[in-house]
Design brief:
Blueprint: H1 3-14, E1 22-31, E2 43-44, E3 46-60, E4 64-69, E5 76-79, H2 93-104, E6 111-118, H3 128-143, H4 150-165, H5 172-179, E7 184-189, E8 195-199, E9 205-211, H6 219-237, H7 254-260, H8 264-288, H9 292-308, H10 315-324, E10 330-336, E11 343-349, H11 353-368, E12 373-375, E13 384-385
Parallel strand pairs: 4-6
Antiparallel strand pairs: 1-3, 1-13, 2-7, 3-6, 4-5, 7-8, 9-11, 9-12, 10-11
Helix pairs in contact: 2-3, 2-4, 3-4, 3-5, 4-5, 6-8, 8-9, 10-11
The structure holds alpha-D-galactopyranose.
């Protein structure tokens, strides 16, 4: 990111070089393991990327909010007259949803000019939305000295996404984007939000993210369907004991599923959540012991469970994962994020990385007709002022 060029673009758009905007950054995230567990009160293990969303923002004397982005041509302008309503299929719903949360807290921003630039691919399961929400939140908090804590902003951004944008996500993405720490993954208990930053020493291995580039289709509706299947499982298990969420059960309880959940689909969904929580616990333990080989095996098992029991993968993700596993130097590979498309995350011996990308790229295109993109990310810090 060339910040000089970014400032120039800001002045080209909004003029007045005498008043300098302020620069903020918020990362995207990749989840190493612990998928579809967050909204079940379970464990996740994501980390923040060095890719994300940059925001230049400046206060003005006017009463308008002006939004622009370098990613596409879609300038927007709106007056602040009480709470905002959803603007339909527009990207400014992400910042507006967050601004609404500030308004609800009695924090009324005056006129503002926003210029965004994102280098995390949109809709690829790397939390571009949480990144836009959180960069907006930290910027407003800073500019208006609102004194909000990071966890408050995480919750406000999740609320914006749930209630304003209309995507019923859990808390993992906003949390990872807010609390990321360079070269660390975040071991988060999504029930009580206790967390620990665990150093991610990869030694002679590298992280590789592969984008299926599958067009986003039914992700949101399928996501909500999975959520209700988990709710159904909890409801049925009440006959066994009072339960708040599936993560109160552990692998020793798996036999209960046969007994209390007659619907085999719902049963498999519950099984995924319970076994995935167990995998996260082990993954954190083996990572601390520098056992990346076992960590990779757990990633593989996580994908298998997401493919077979939770059914959130699809031909594109499965092709990347199952073909990827055949290649030399691959310790583990799995889908990351909501699934149905988006990206995989792999741990690959660095010496084999180039061959991995080349060979996987070929076989993926041959089998799906699509072209994959590869990223070799660094693990970065959470959202803040640059
Ligand atoms: C999306 C959601 C998260 C989480 C993952 C699946 O990224 O935004 O809250 O549920 O899917 O683990």
């Amino acid at each position: 990111m060339d910040t000089g060029v970014f400032y120039d673009k800001f002045y080209e758009k909004y003029g007045n070089r005498n008043s300098k905007p302020v620069l903020f950054f918020s990362p995207g995230r990749v989840n190493l393991i612990g998928e579809h567990t967050d909204y079940n009160g379970g464990y996740v293990f994501p980390c923040a990327l060095n890719y994300g969303t940059y925001l230049l923002i400046r206060k003005t004397e006017a009463s308008t909010l002006k939004f622009s982005t370098l990613n596409f041509t879609a300038d927007e302008e709106t007056e602040i007259n009480g709470l905002f309503a959803n603007k339909g299929k527009k990207w400014i719903n992400y910042p507006l949803g967050v601004i609404n949360e500030f308004l609800k807290k009695g924090i009324k921003p005056g006129g503002l000019e926003f210029l965004y630039y994102g280098d995390v691919p949109n809709g690829a399961g790397l939390s571009s939305s949480a990144s836009i929400e959180m960069v907006t939140a930290v910027a407003l908090n800073d500019l208006f000295s609102s004194g909000l804590s990071m966890i408050e902003m995480v919750r406000m951004s999740q609320k914006a996404e749930n209630e304003f944008v209309g995507m019923n996500c859990g808390i993992m993405d906003q949390f990872a984007v807010g609390f990321g720490k360079k070269d660390h993954a975040i071991f988060l208990n999504c029930d009580n939000l206790a967390y620990e930053n665990v150093p991610l020493f990869l030694g002679d291995c590298s992280l590789i993210i592969t984008n299926t580039n599958k067009r986003r289709g039914l992700t949101d509706s399928k996501y909500n369907e999975r959520r209700s299947e988990c709710d159904k499982a909890v409801e049925l298990l009440q006959a066994y004991k009072p339960l708040k969420n599936l993560s109160e059960l552990n692998t020793g309880d798996l036999h209960l599923l046969d007994k209390y959940i007659p619907d085999t689909v719902v049963r498999r969904r519950a099984k995924h959540v319970i076994t995935e929580n167990n995998r996260v616990l082990e993954a954190v333990k083996v990572l601390k012991a520098n056992n990346l080989v076992r960590f990779g095996e757990l990633m593989n098992q996580s994908h298998d469970s997401l493919s077979v029991d939770y059914e959130v993968t699809g031909i594109e993700l499965d092709t990347l994962v199952y073909e990827g596993r055949k290649l030399p130097g691959v310790l583990g590979t799995r889908m990351t994020g909501a699934g149905f498309g988006g990206c995989t995350i792999s741990i690959v011996r660095t010496k084999d990385s180039s061959a991995f990308m080349k060979n996987l790229s070929e076989v993926y295109t041959r089998k799906t007709g699509l072209t994959a993109d590869f990223y070799q990310p660094e693990i970065g810090n959470g959202a803040g002022r640059l």
